[in-house]
Amino acid sequence: xxxxxxxxxxxxxxxxxxxxxxxxxxxxxxxxGTTVALLGxxxxxxxxxxxxxxxxxxxxxxxVRVHGGTxxxxxxxxxxxxxxxxxxxxxxxxxxxxxxxxxxxxxxPLALDELLSLADLTELAGRRAGRLSGGQAQRVRFALxxxxxxxxxxxxxxxxxxxxxxRLRFWASMHDYAAGGRTVLFATHQMExxxxxxxxxxxxxxxRLAADGxxxxxxxxxxxxxxxxxxxxQPAAGLDRLPGVTAVEVAGGTATLHTSDPxxxxxxxxxxxxLDVRGLTLTGADLEAxxxxxxxxSR
Length: 299
Description:
This protein is α/β, with parallel strands linked by helices. Helices cover 31% and strands 28% of the residues. It is built from ten helices and 13 strands. Helix 8 crosses helix 10 (287-297).
């Protein structure tokens, strides 16, 4: 009997491209109704994992299951929708014509007006797809991805080419769609988006699972803190050699020292340098710092 308790399952999945191991014994499960951010450096195996989940690739070993069945079965049943980084739109069709064309391919699609409203495209319904900006085209791709009312939605770098306002509108639309108990998995390089818009964060590095939990849990587990102060025109040389410091960032006249031992770093900063330290703040690690630490540890 097939298990249907999880929306997505990777059971010891590996994928080889010749001698290259893109996904290495990956096991994870995602419960229905969860919004999950998938993080990883370039070449980490994110895109391969998404293609395995869509049934575009077959695993070299292990099994991928979607609501207890195969990805191919889920796609045929209209249970999965995908918004990938690239995908040409038919330039001669209007937004309304294009969305209606795609929605009619599904057995139980969302209504056309609902799709236009959900993707914030009502005012653009009569514009030809070839005349859309990059951000507008992304919103159309989102509408096409949800046209069949899929139970699982995959988004690969969904806010690429969007300006700040368009990003805010997109995430509002995504949350509206997910509110119906659907499962959303999105891959992104935008750490603030993963932090703010996910229930759970999965980090993949070198094809393996590096971390899995809420953004808060991953930040806490990664440990480390950040010491920031006004550097001004003073030299930054030697800051990376202070006790406990794992990384140094200097921007806008402010130095940020990522450290595993803030007490030792502060002692070294005050006793071991001649810097005039002002505006000092001490904060916990953000998701980007946690991500960098996790991916460094996986090398």
